[in-house]
């Protein structure tokens, strides 16, 4: 009986979770919305969020793919290099296949979740992302190059939120010259008229062990 239930469990995991079978491993847009509201990224970063797509975050570390999904705990070493962003559920959303996207990543917990006086920190802003299969490849230089998470010693883990937008006409091409501190992603989104994100995801990163 036990053996039979274990077998059934393994079968269910294989069918629903195994990435090689092409099933989503990042959860649905509805799950992303619920999770971002639960950890208050909504409304801390955007007042509203009605995602239509799933945003995948995959870091490649020493030959291992680490998926960052709805609060995965990762280390500064894991996240030192820019991840690959993807839209794993694109098969279900053909209307988005030929679109151009903007990716924005911010830390709203700087210098710490209890003192957010330097928030948001701008960790990445870039446009010109186009789909190659399910992977988002950028075709233009970033406006704000990727900066890996580096919370100060003693701080609890920070929320690192990444949002995906449809790229508006006349999206800027000049890199930022302003400080990465005290950035405001929703006011930037308003300024460049890209509106609310179509997808979002987040990871948690604490300080590197000292
Ligand atoms: C990757 O490998 C190098 C060399 O072995 C090591 O120094 C580094 O800590 C590894 N990175 C992670 C995130 O494990
Ligand atoms: C909050 O952090 C800033 C540094 O960004 C510091 O100057 C300030 O004193 C801190 N405030 C409190 C209440 O700890
Ligand atoms: C960001 O800007 C919006 C206006 O676009 C404002 O409503 C919001 O309070 C700002 N957020 C922060 C954290 O300052």
Automatic annotation (TrEMBL):
Query: Which keywords, in A-to-Z order, does the entry hold?
Result: Signal
Annotated coiled-coil positions are none
Say which domain of life the source belongs to.
Eukaryota
Q: Which InterPro entries match?
A: PEBP, PEBP-like_sf, PEBP_euk
A Gene Ontology molecular function term of the record? phospholipid binding
Signal sequence interval, chain numbering? 1-22
Provide an example Pfam family for this protein.
PBP
> Which biological process, per GO, is one annotated for this protein?
regulation of proteolysis
Q: Which PANTHER family match?
A: PHOSPHATIDYLETHANOLAMINE-BINDING PROTEIN, PROTEASE INHIBITOR
Protein name, as recorded: PEBP-like protein
Query: What species was this sequence derived from?
Result: Sistotremastrum niveocremeum HHB9708
